Amino acid sequence: MTSNGVSLPPIAILGAGSMGGAILHGLVGSGLAVGGVTVTNRSAQKAEALAGLEGVTSVALETQQDGNTDAAATADVVLIGVKPAMVPDLLREVAPVLRPGTIVVSLAAGVTIATYQAILGERIPVLRSMPNTPAVVGKAVTGLAAGHGVTPADVAVVRSLFETVGVVIEVPESQIDALSTISGSGPAYVFLLIEELTKAARGKGFDEAQARLMVEQTFIGAAALLEASGEDPAELRRRVTSPKGTTERAIAVLHSARLDVVFESATDAALARARELAAG
């Protein structure tokens, strides 16, 4: 049972690549995928890497050509984890075997609910999700948008699925692409900041191990403090920034770099790409 009392039914993840694999590992780690999980991958090598996970049936499509349809036919929730360009062909493949009421959840960036419903028809409830890779450690942020005809019960099941790997934010589909530029791509922004600060540490004479330890633990500690304190990050920053001190001088340099403009431009670029993907 999940924390809110909703049991997770049989789940299929068609395309357990980067994101599908993160969701899979989070589900397995939670111990709550009581209905079992079937995952498909094209190669036997990728399928073999997942075969030992508890409660998981891992299928290689190169040796089991009907793997997608077999998995979809027996699942109550089907996650579509293939690359966006591959989604329409996969939907046409599994559409004939989906039982009415089977919930289909998109993990594909830029593919609209309308694309799914045009192929699957109105009998299949479709939700569009945008999780991020911290799902693998139970710290995901997942945006969730429901399509036409999706019931509150459908949303509750899918929300419970994603809550096993983090927190869920329900939004209209019109906001999913914007959400993807913040939480979806956000881990990469954080990792980039860690990379650059580690380079700066090495430039100050620290070796690689020392630089990584101080930078990574500083980010981890700051995030933990933010979560534990409940304070606004701006307030926590002010507490670290003593008047006329070293941190104040460093923050002034960062402000002069116009990080607000940099992040706005970066997320705008990501949003433009998401819209390009949606346009085909």
TrEMBL record:
Record-linked InterPro entries: 6-PGluconate_DH-like_C_sf, NAD(P)-bd_dom_sf, P5C_Rdtase_cat_N, P5CR_dimer, Pyrroline-COOH_reductase
One of the GO BP terms on file: L-proline biosynthetic process
Catalytic class of the enzyme: oxidoreductase
UniProt-listed Enzyme Commission number(s): 1.5.1.2
GO MF annotations in UniProt: pyrroline-5-carboxylate reductase activity
Cytoplasm keyword on record: yes
Positions bound to NADP(+): 14-19
Subcellular location per the Swiss-Prot or TrEMBL entry: Cytoplasm
Pathway: Amino-acid biosynthesis; L-proline biosynthesis; L-proline from L-glutamate 5-semialdehyde: step 1/1
Residues noted as binding NADPH in the record, renumbered to the chain: 68
Domain Pyrroline-5-carboxylate reductase catalytic N-terminal: 11-110
Residue ranges annotated for the Pyrroline-5-carboxylate reductase dimerisation domain, each copy included: 173-277
Phosphoprotein found in the keyword field: no
Catalysed conversion reaction: L-proline + NADP(+) = (S)-1-pyrroline-5-carboxylate + NADPH + 2 H(+); L-proline + NAD(+) = (S)-1-pyrroline-5-carboxylate + NADH + 2 H(+)
Task performed by this protein: Catalyzes the reduction of 1-pyrroline-5-carboxylate (PCA) to L-proline.
Family from the record: Belongs to the pyrroline-5-carboxylate reductase family.
Name of protein: Pyrroline-5-carboxylate reductase
Gene designation per UniProt: proC
